[in-house]
Design goal:
The chain is mainly alpha-helical. It is 65% helix and 3% strand.
Amino acid sequence: MGFTDTLADRFDVAARGSDVRTEVIAGITTFLAMSYIIVVNPFILAEAIEIPGYEFFEVVQMIAIATVLSSAAATLVMAFYANRPFGLAPGMGLNAFFAFSVVLGLGIPWQTALAAVFAEGVLFMLLTAVGARKYVIQLFPEPVKRAVGAGIGLFLLFIGLQELQVVVPDEATLVTLGGVFGNPWAILGVFGLVLTFSLWARGVTGSVVLGILATSIVGWGLTLGGVFERGVVTPESLPSAQYDITPLAGAFLDGLADIEPFTFVLVVFTFFFVDFFDTAGTLIGVSQYGDFLDEDGDLPEMEKPLMADAVGTTVGAMLGTSTVTTYIESSTGVEEGGRTGLTALVVALGFLASLVLIPVVAAIPGYASFIALVVVGVMMLQGLTEVDWDDPAWAVSAGLTVTVMPFAYSIADGLAAGIVAYPIIKLAVGEPTDVSLGQYLLAALVAAYYVLQTSGVIL
């Protein structure tokens, strides 16, 4: 029996109507579609993670390695334990919440934020192991679950436009459109957006990573051609290759010693909520492409891919990165015919092979990497179509969830607004029995937290 036959037998390829060649192509396709995270995640987290004695781009390389290793670990679990063709990596939105809301916004040390991610991963594993998924799903209002993806999309979109300097601060209106055409950084960012959106609209595989690379090449080309001085649209200096991540790995242990209970619980809760429903929604959505769902619309043995997500999150926190989740880009590989864990195995190997390119990450200009936030943010707005805007409770709860996230610069605040609003509107329209006891209790706890926080009782 040859190696190909061994792989086919190990992943039951033939039984699922596929073949090894198709699975390999599907895996390469998925990896190309989601590989932008190797560049984007480090730039987002490095905004908040400062390590004494190390420069910004050295930290970027450390986080890139943590991103690659956690993605590979989670996807290998998906391959060999769940035998599903899904790729996993640190989630967009959750990395922004980690950096901009938790660390920079709340002033929580990044080590403690990693401890919260670790706690969320362990909680996710425990709930998945005991089969408590359905009870967790019932605890949250449906409009909040449907709107959270779009809210995160707007949050990413807002952050991305600011990082590209397309949107800038304004004393009168808080924010306004920047002077794009007088700013080389913004000009190149807009160029990258136009290119990336055009590639995506044409269905080009890996459009985001291609847009990032093309924009970076243009920026470096203009610099080397003498149009701009070094440091204007490119990094001023590049560090040597940084493969030592010991200052980052294990830092969550230090964070466990510096916890403010109430705030820590809220952060863990937010990480868990977004991770759980993002993963569950992605699994169901991608599974529709591959006809994996049963007659009830459920994914058989869904606990297995959920466990891969939980393991990846836990490993990622230990290595030094934010929450790992299943990627919607997995649908590109499924559309290519990927049906088994062999597709996921190829994705994991793609991540591991990318370790040799870690030094290149430091050469990517910031405007190129933040293109992904705007593009992914726009893609996530599709979730708004799932909201029943004719129902007052849905409209208010979902509307607040979506809008408070970018306006308050916090995913947690958006979730809180939606969770508290739902039972209030249901009571107002005379439908109190539509809200479960658990949803009432959750809303009361969330409201109590914010009352105590604003009154200064807790941080």
